[in-house]
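Methods, example record. To illustrate the input and output format used throughout this study, we show the complete record for Dihydroorotate dehydrogenase B (NAD(+)), electron transfer subunit. The sequence lines were provided to the predictor; the line carrying structure tokens was produced by it.
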Amino acid sequence: MFRGDLEVKSNKLIASDTFEIVLQGNVVQQISRPGQFVHIKIGEGSTHMLRRPFSIADYNIKANQLTIIYKLIGDGTEWLSHRRTGENLNVLGPLGNGFEVEGIKDEHILVIGGGVGVPPLYNLVKQLSTQNHVTAILGYQSKDAIFYEQKFSRFADTFIATNDGSYGYKGFVTDVIDQMGVKFDQYYACGPLGMLGAVQQRLIDVDGYLSIEERMGCGVGACFACVCPAINEKGYVKICQDGPVFHSKEVTL
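The corresponding predicted structure is encoded as:
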């Protein structure tokens, strides 16, 4: 596991209250699967005691760079949005268990993302698309919140849903699934718990994987701040350590 400083190569607004930051450093060499995350130290001094988890949207081993997409939701991400090229961020990671992609071939795969649950699916789609037919359904609040549509379209048949109908399909990602009427071999999803629960129920007979978003404390499974009900002998799983990716039959949402 890497713990140290990464250099900010770029940090820009890409949609309403949504930023893309590119970091460079040796943590990239240790990323093993799409869907993993990093813990970033926010602010100076003791203002923000806990690190913040951010999903890895993409990474480039040759360039030694990783990309993170984050939404402005408080003082911490506001501080992050003001980091400039050449500054350093203290990063711990990569953390968590990501999506399994090895050995998946010649399948029709559905990828479903909602809001800030979209980023960790981008590199997943890039990898899966090399040997599979991938369909992506991405949900956003409105047109001005949409990001990465063209990037996803390079690797997957991409459909957009907005809650207010200002772009693409009006409604939720599950509404798009219903309208498509297509059978899939597997699905992968990341987004708010409500969305994941609806997808889990809608695709109950399909083999699926869910990446669960949750506020975390330590990020390494020591503090029990991010547990989720599960079907195992303990009755729960730690999202940061056991996940954030789980088989759809493994957790209860």
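Annotations derived from this record:
The chain has two domains: 2-95, 108-191.
The chain has six helices and 16 strands.
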